[in-house]
Amino acid sequence: MLQYTSGSTSDPKGVVITHGNLAHQFELNRRLLGLGLETRGVFWLPPYHDFGLISVILSTLTGNSELTMMSPLSFIQRPALWFDVMNRVRATHTAAPNFAYDLAVHKTTTEQRAQWDLSSLKVVMSAAEPVREETKRRFLEAFAVTGLRPEAFCPAYGLAEHTVAVTIFGRSTLRVDRHQLEMERRAVPADGADSQVLVSCGELTGDVDVRIVDPELCVGLSDGQVGEIWVDSPSKAAGYWGSPDESRATFAARLTGMNDGHSYLRTGDLGFLHDGELYVCGRVKDLLIVAGRNIHPQDVEDTLRNCHRAIRPGDRGLRHRCR
Fold it and tell me: Which intervals hold domain AMP-dependent synthetase/ligase (predicted)?
């Protein structure tokens, strides 16, 4: 089948997904997420996005699991409905992008949360956009009264060119020195005012080969160094439909000095490895270099979001001239 990229950083491209890609992805999700006969999934993700179609609908069905679907519009109009349904069916699995967990905190009341029992949830996946530590913390604090277990929260990372998932079940957060991250492109653990907290997007497993690579020199980097994320596995797609040159450049990248015939998918994402887990920092093409500092746009957005309560994602300011 053809699976189109999101188009968030360039025009959407058709990714050729093979039967083998899907089979590997389903088995990866089944094993890592514990899908089976006892699974009861509740989801509102749209089927026209890979997160909804492959990670949720098809993976759950091929795992012989029970699936309850909602409309995305129903969730947006009334976020509490998501939790009403999970409470009613005793859901074990759910998933959503980061924004949904922010919305859940802001659009549900203390009284509503006190009525829900979410202790049956084993997996609460967060993916498809950057996972913010502040969002994770606020959501778990607000929903603690429901019996939701913190260990159920499941950050993950994936992309259309790898069918979907690359890593799943990020367990850790890491506080790093902001100066070292921006100036030296190194993740150095640190405390203090000039530090930032990053969320792991999952543990490395034998299913997917993940490398951190210098995007210009194409040489592998050591743990803690920030570089482009390269991946290889049976989930790596066959290429872009009708674009052989771009397919070779993206899906058949090779490390400098390595002649073993092994090739990788260049994700275009920046990240680093620490204690066997993957941390995603941003996009190669989005990186801003200001006075020698490497600044990621999402960090600017987070700073603006936190500087005043009147600033919210997606809003825009309008200046009216009075007469």
Answer: 2-241
Beta strands in 181-232 (DSSP E): 195-203, 209-213, 227-232
- The 10s digit of each residue's pLDDT in 93-143 is 999 999 999 999 999 999 999 999 999 999 999 999 999 999 999 999 999
Indicate whether 312 belongs to any domain.
Answer: no
User: Which runs of consecutive H residues, i.e. helices, occur in 181-296?
Assistant: 244-251
Model pTM score: 0.88
CB 185 within 8 A of CB 199: no
Q: Is 60 a member of any domain?
A: yes
* CB neighbour class for 242 (10 Å; exposed up to 12, middle 13-18, buried from 19): exposed
Q: Measured between alpha carbons, how far is 28 from 66 in angstroms, rounded to an integer?
A: 18
Over the stretch 50-66, which tens digit does the pLDDT of each residue have? Answer: 999 999 999 999 999 99
Domain, as residue range, for 44: 2-307
Which residues lie below 8 Å from residue 256, measured CB to CB, with a gap of 6+?
217, 218, 219
3-state SS assignment for residue 265: strand
The CATH number covering residue 154 comes to 3.40.50.12780
Domain assignment present for 151:
yes
Q: What is the DSSP string of 111-151?
A: HHHHH---TT--EEEE-SSPPPHHHHHHHHHHTGGGT--GG
52 burial class (0-12, 13-18, 19+ CB within 10 angstroms)?
buried
For the chain, the domain total comes to: 1
Q: Identity (one letter) of the amino acid at 62?
A: T
